[in-house]
């Protein structure tokens, strides 16, 4: 059964999609960018602040499905410039236990929605 997951604690979708879809015990999140859900403003002062907002948005979507970062089994990271990788990775790493961290890919792309620097999506499973 397909269940739509949406929360006001994360930015509202800016297109014909939902924040996440739960099928059985598997959650598929849409890519999160650094929109502050309270103000609707982009958080782009630094790549660290931008990444933190992305991760907080992802955290809120996971929580709306009664999950957390320990449930995440796969992450996709899209960045506008691979030179930012280590700064993004430093913030990203604060959200996961290194010994149980999910599988992941990091890909440099030509552009992202609203011209942000980083977008992250995840797949999580309820254990």
UniProtKB/TrEMBL annotation:
<dbReference type="GO" id="GO:0019239">
    <property type="term" value="F:deaminase activity"/>
</dbReference>
<dbReference type="InterPro" id="IPR006175">
    <property type="entry name" value="YjgF/YER057c/UK114"/>
</dbReference>
<dbReference type="Pfam" id="PF01042">
    <property type="entry name" value="Ribonuc_L-PSP"/>
</dbReference>
<protein>
    <submittedName>
        <fullName>RidA family protein</fullName>
    </submittedName>
</protein>
<dbReference type="GO" id="GO:0005829">
    <property type="term" value="C:cytosol"/>
</dbReference>
<comment type="similarity">
    <text>Belongs to the RutC family.</text>
</comment>
<dbReference type="InterPro" id="IPR035959">
    <property type="entry name" value="RutC-like_sf"/>
</dbReference>
<dbReference type="InterPro" id="IPR006056">
    <property type="entry name" value="RidA"/>
</dbReference>
